[in-house]
Each structure stands twice: as structure tokens, then as C-alpha cells.
Design goal:
341 residues; 0% strand; mainly alpha
């Protein structure tokens, strides 16, 4: 009897895992496993790519912050680079002007500063919808960009902020030229952010954001504080973008004006659409694919790499309107049908 029970439990567990792998959550599981294996392989065998892997992890955090806003809450933005750039400048100025070089507390500082700006601008941005939101977010981003450009004694202006010093992580791990500390540091922060985002989006609060995106009037009718929840996710998204910007500043020990530029806001939106908006793992996958293609194409064809990147995006949008994660969904569904036949 005992062996039969063990056999039954084993079969049930296998069935559960197979069902999870073939269901909607299967795509998330497959992508999570692939990303985990990719990170492990990079750590063990990709010494030459540790710095690139750190950039990928930073882009993943930034993309995730935008997906929370655009994909889950339905708030459109073309100025999210302002929070990314503000986080980068916050840790840079704190290091150069105040001698604040401890990296973890500086990350929290960057998140808090970006969250404050998110609270201040979010009150105004959320009074509008659609094109109005796009215009306001672009306007705020342009204002901050110009302020940073004019405040040359503080930000370095067009020359960039130089002279940053970052202390060893936890007092033990010094940033090295090979990028191992940068890779592990950004990977650790990424894991914390992903766990936070997954728990938040699966909570009643996260599901209420999807409800607001789908039918705001109905959510108001059942007593949901729509504006309050939209403002809160706007602030959370701003804080995460600020942390991503701070990581870039700490790992490169330089802050340039490009971190506030409009093109960065557009690029991160493309990444979210590429991966699949409204699916956290899709945004993460989009960040990986986009960053790696951008790096390889710019190395292979420095003059025309934007052409090839545009061609790739056009093909994916035409043949995978739900993004890369939509392709994974279709592939798993096909496998499921073959298994059932």
C-alpha cells in the first residue's frame, strides 16, 4: 500500500508540474528557468560578458518598472527615463558632493528621491488620460533634462558627472574591472525586485490594478479608490526605475545626460512591447533579447545597426502581436495538443 501511495503521489506531482508547464503560467515558468540557467552559465563561463550581464539586469529592472505602470495599471508614459535618470544622478551627486559612497543605502536614497518626484508629478499626470498623459510625462522629462543640462556645477552638464566613488558592497566586495561584483550585485537586486513585483501583482492590490485597466468605471462603482491606487503604483514604478538608474551609475561610476533622454523612455517602452506588456516575465525576456541584440548588432554593423534592430522589431510585432511571451504561449499550446493527440 505504501509503495502504491508513493507512486500515486509521484504521478500527481508530475501531472501538476506538467499542467503548470502547459498552462498560462507555463510560459512564466519556462522563461524563469531559462533566465536562471542563463545567469548561472554567465557566472560560470561568461567572464567576458559580466559587465554586459550587469547592464541586462539593470534594463530588466527598468523594464519591469514600466510594465507595472503600462501593462498592469494601463497608465501610458513617454517620460519614464526621468525617474531612471534621477536615481542615477541622486547616487552620483551624493557620492561626489556628500561623500555618500555606501552602495546599498545609496540605492534606497535613489529610490526615495525618484518616488518623491513620482508622487509630485503623478498627482498631475493622473488627472489626464491617453494623449494627455503622454504629453505631460514627456513635458516633465524634458524639464528635468534641461535642468540637469543647465546645472553643470552639480551634474556636469553635457560632459557628464564624473569622480564617483562607490564603496565595496557590504564592505567586502569591491567593484572590479572584470565586472563580477557588478554582475552579482545587480543580479541580487534584480531577484529582490522580481520577487517583490510577483508578490504585488498576485495580491488583491495587483489584481485591482488590472481591474482598473480593464474597466475603471466598474471598479469605482464597487468602491475601489481608483486614483489612490493609480498614484501608489506610479510612485512604486518611479522608485524601481530610480533604483535601476542608481545601479547603472554605481556600476559604471559615471552619469551622462543620456539617462534622462526621451529616446531612453521610448526604448524601454519598445522592450516592454517586445516581451509582452502585462506579463512580468515577458518584460524581463524583452529586456534580455533587446539588450543582447543591440550589443551584437552595434558591434557587427556600427553604421546601420538601428536598421537591423528596427527590422527585427517589425517582424516580431507583425508575427507576434502579444510579444515574445505570446510566442512561448503558442509553442507550449502546440506541444500540449501534440501530447494530447
Amino acid at each position: 500500500m505504501k509503495s502504491l501511495s508513493v507512486s500515486y503521489q509521484g504521478a500527481a506531482a508530475a501531472s501538476t508540474w506538467r499542467g503548470l508547464a502547459m498552462g498560462r503560467g507555463g510560459s512564466d515558468l519556462v522563461i524563469a528557468v531559462l533566465l536562471g540557467l542563463g545567469a548561472l552559465a554567465t557566472l560560470l563561463f561568461g567572464e567576458a560578458y559580466w559587465l554586459l550581464a550587469a547592464q541586462v539586469a539593470i534594463t530588466m529592472i527598468f523594464a519591469l518598472s514600466v510594465d507595472l505602470l503600462v501593462g498592469f495599471a494601463g497608465i501610458v508614459t513617454l517620460g519614464h527615463a526621468v525617474f531612471f535618470g534621477l536615481g542615477a544622478y541622486a547616487v552620483g551627486i551624493a557620492s561626489v558632493e556628500l561623500g555618500w559612497t555606501e552602495p546599498l543605502s545609496a540605492l534606497l536614497l535613489a529610490g526615495a528621491v525618484s518616488a518623491l518626484l513620482g508622487a509630485a508629478t503623478g498627482v498631475l499626470v493622473l488627472r489626464t488620460r491617453g494623449l494627455g498623459q503622454l504629453m505631460l510625462t514627456m513635458a516633465f522629462a524634458s524639464l528635468v533634462y534641461e535642468i540637469a543640462n543647465r546645472a553643470k556645477p552639480l551634474t556636469g552638464g553635457a560632459d557628464g558627472l564624473q569622480g564617483m566613488i562607490v564603496s565595496p558592497v557590504a564592505g567586502l566586495f569591491e567593484f572590479d574591472i572584470f565586472g563580477l561584483t557588478a554582475f552579482l550585485y545587480t543580479l541580487a537586486v534584480l531577484i529582490v525586485v522580481v520577487v517583490f513585483a510577483v508578490l504585488m501583482t498576485r495580491s488583491p492590490y495587483g489584481r485591482s490594478l488590472v481591474g482598473i485597466r480593464e474597466n475603471r468605471v466598474r471598479m469605482q462603482a464597487i468602491g475601489t479608490g481608483v486614483q489612490r491606487r493609480l498614484l501608489s503604483i506610479y510612485i512604486v514604478s518611479a522608485a524601481l526605475a530610480g533604483i535601476a538608474g542608481a545601479l547603472l551609475a554605481q556600476t559604471s561610476q559615471f552619469v551622462g545626460l543620456n539617462v534622462l533622454h526621451f529616446s531612453l523612455s521610448g526604448e524601454i517602452l519598445i522592450i516592454v512591447a517586445l516581451g509582452g506588456a502585462g506579463r512580468l516575465w515577458g518584460a524581463l525576456l524583452g529586456a534580455v533579447v533587446f539588450t543582447l541584440f543591440k550589443d551584437r548588432l552595434s558591434a557587427l554593423d556600427p553604421a546601420y545597426w538601428y536598421f537591423w534592430l528596427g527590422l527585427l522589431l517589425a517582424v516580431i510585432v507583425l508575427f507576434a502581436p502579444k510579444g515574445l511571451i505570446g510566442l512561448v504561449d503558442r509553442l507550449l499550446a502546440l506541444l500540449h495538443r501534440k501530447e494530447a493527440a
